[in-house]
Amino acid sequence: MKTLFDCKKACKVKVKKLNAQPDLKQRFISFGIMKDAELEVLQHTARKSTVEIKVGSMQIALRSNEAKLIEVEKI
């Protein structure tokens, strides 16, 4: 399964599964990152240490290790 970290810039995806511990999973949900949510990858930093995404009208930067916990499929 593809993770959010694997997505390229301008890729639009749908969340399939969150593989995070309960505290981090709750944080994702508070940002609107939950199963079946649609996200857009805006950019990766130079060393791919963070991934900037758009969730609804909000822009969020996730650490690469956090982005690797979010399974997605392209839409």
UniProtKB/TrEMBL annotation:
<dbReference type="InterPro" id="IPR008988">
    <property type="entry name" value="Transcriptional_repressor_C"/>
</dbReference>
<dbReference type="Pfam" id="PF04023">
    <property type="entry name" value="FeoA"/>
</dbReference>
<feature type="domain" description="Ferrous iron transporter FeoA-like">
    <location>
        <begin position="2"/>
        <end position="74"/>
    </location>
</feature>
<dbReference type="InterPro" id="IPR007167">
    <property type="entry name" value="Fe-transptr_FeoA-like"/>
</dbReference>
<keyword id="KW-0408">Iron</keyword>
<protein>
    <submittedName>
        <fullName>Ferrous iron transport protein A</fullName>
    </submittedName>
</protein>
<dbReference type="InterPro" id="IPR052713">
    <property type="entry name" value="FeoA"/>
</dbReference>
<dbReference type="InterPro" id="IPR038157">
    <property type="entry name" value="FeoA_core_dom"/>
</dbReference>
<dbReference type="GO" id="GO:0046914">
    <property type="term" value="F:transition metal ion binding"/>
</dbReference>
